TrEMBL record:
<dbReference type="GO" id="GO:0005737">
    <property type="term" value="C:cytoplasm"/>
</dbReference>
<dbReference type="InterPro" id="IPR004148">
    <property type="entry name" value="BAR_dom"/>
</dbReference>
<feature type="domain" description="BAR">
    <location>
        <begin position="24"/>
        <end position="266"/>
    </location>
</feature>
<dbReference type="InterPro" id="IPR050384">
    <property type="entry name" value="Endophilin_SH3RF"/>
</dbReference>
<feature type="coiled-coil region">
    <location>
        <begin position="179"/>
        <end position="213"/>
    </location>
</feature>
<dbReference type="InterPro" id="IPR001452">
    <property type="entry name" value="SH3_domain"/>
</dbReference>
<comment type="subunit">
    <text>Homodimer, and heterodimer with SH3GLB1.</text>
</comment>
<keyword id="KW-0963">Cytoplasm</keyword>
<dbReference type="GO" id="GO:0016020">
    <property type="term" value="C:membrane"/>
</dbReference>
<keyword id="KW-0728">SH3 domain</keyword>
<dbReference type="InterPro" id="IPR036028">
    <property type="entry name" value="SH3-like_dom_sf"/>
</dbReference>
<comment type="similarity">
    <text>Belongs to the endophilin family.</text>
</comment>
<dbReference type="Pfam" id="PF03114">
    <property type="entry name" value="BAR"/>
</dbReference>
<dbReference type="GO" id="GO:0061024">
    <property type="term" value="P:membrane organization"/>
</dbReference>
<protein>
    <recommendedName>
        <fullName>Endophilin-B2</fullName>
    </recommendedName>
</protein>
<keyword id="KW-0175">Coiled coil</keyword>
<dbReference type="InterPro" id="IPR035640">
    <property type="entry name" value="Endophilin_B2_SH3"/>
</dbReference>
Length: 379
């Protein structure tokens, strides 16, 4: 009991001495031992690493899970050391709604079929997102958290100890200075000077030892940067894989919708292939195309659903043709198409059964299919 009381009294005395030293330093009434420039640079570098790691960690969490309530829930599960329950992604939820809508509105209708196709793609996108979140959490977020909750806590603890050792050292220096000043007045203080010098030597040794421990930990920040660099590269790889999967899924969906477009939207122009710089919208193309008379069926000419139309056998109709200005250069993909040069004028008309995104174009004695989105139809 007496031992514990003495220890508590000793600890309280040390705490009070440190508080007095710290306060006097703040008011400029006491000297302070300064660390060398290299040590100060290590401290600043460590603080900067900690601050930016926290910001990157928090913003990556927002990127992977935009819902703040869900982030709080996941944080609580981690703190309780419990497995985070599986959560449906937004893409998977959208896929579920589209599937249910298609079943209720009619899965055999054009709208229902399209809902099913888009829903299947959204489900794949949601699964890809889930894989990306899982990979990023393990390979990127976890190492950052481990640094903040492990290495950085150790560094902070040793820095606090070093601060206390520095305060003890400076307090010993102040006591020795006072003892020497008193010794100059009376020889009776010689024992106090010896005691103060002995305490200073002990404090200096403890400070030097703690400074070395802290220095080694701070220099380990370089290894932390190397580890975070590797984790960052893995994060980029995961993100690139995720976006590549999304691109492939959407490309497949576009092809599926494009193959059924003529069936779902007969007689209208849909600007899927319209370049971003084209001044014509899909609606304006459809309106313009509606004013182009369809060439009447010519005797002996194959109708829609039969063999492909031979352009060489099609004569220019006497009426129902229009002039069109070419907006952009176009390179013919095969012999059935007509190559175009920007700003030239050509004659265009439509044939029965043609894809609504195409017209027949003629320039001199050459003719071929031309895309509507590359043309400005003239009145």
């Amino acid at each position: 009991m007496d031992f514990n009381m003495k220890k508590l009294a000793s600890d309280a005395g040390i705490f009070f001495t440190r508080a007095v030293q710290f306060t006097e330093e703040k008011f400029g009434q006491a000297e302070k031992t300064e660390l060398d420039a290299h040590f100060e640079n290590l401290l600043a570098r460590a603080d900067s690493t900690k601050n930016w790691t926290e910001k990157i960690l928090r913003q990556t969490e927002v990127l992977l899970q935009p819902n703040p309530s869900a982030r709080v829930e996941e944080f609580l599960y981690e703190k309780l050391d419990r497995k985070v329950p599986s959560r449906v992604t937004n893409g998977e939820l959208l896929a579920q709604y589209m599937s249910e809508a298609a079943n209720e509105l009619g899965p055999e209708t054009p709208y229902g079929k399209t809902l099913i196709k888009v829903g299947e793609t959204e489900k794949r996108l949601g699964a890809a997102e889930r894989d990306f979140i899982h990979s990023a959490s393990i390979n990127f977020l976890t190492p950052l958290r481990n640094f903040l909750e492990g290495d950085w806590r150790t560094i902070s603890k040793e820095r606090r100890i070093l601060q206390n050792r520095r305060l003890d050292l400076d307090a010993c220096k102040a006591r020795l200075k006072k003892a020497k000043a008193a010794e100059a007045k009376a020889a009776l203080w010689s024992d106090e000077v010896d005691k103060a010098e002995q305490e200073l030597r002990v404090a200096q040794t403890e400070f030097d030892r703690q400074a070395e421990v802290t220095r080694l930990l701070l220099e380990g920040i370089s290894s932390t940067h190397v580890n975070h660099l590797r984790c960052l590269q893995e994060f980029v790889e995961s993100q690139a894989t995720y976006y590549a999967q999304c691109y492939r899924h959407m490309l497949d969906l576009q092809k599926q919708l494009g193959s059924t477009q003529g069936v779902i939207f007969p007689g209208t122009f849909v600007g899927n292939t319209e370049p971003a710089s084209s001044p014509l919208s899909s609606a304006s193309l459809a309106t313009a195309a509606a004013t182009i008379p369809v060439m009447p069926t010519v005797a002996g000419m194959p109708s829609a659903g039969e063999a492909a139309i031979s352009l060489d056998d099609v004569a220019l109709p006497a009426s129902g043709t229009r002039k069109a200005r070419v907006l952009y250069d176009y390179e013919a993909a095969d012999s059935s198409e007509l190559a175009l040069l920007a700003d030239e004028l050509i004659t265009v008309y439509s044939l029965p059964g043609m894809d609504p995104d195409w017209l027949i174009g003629e320039r001199g004695n050459r003719k071929g299919k031309v895309p509507v989105t590359y043309l400005e139809l003239l009145s």
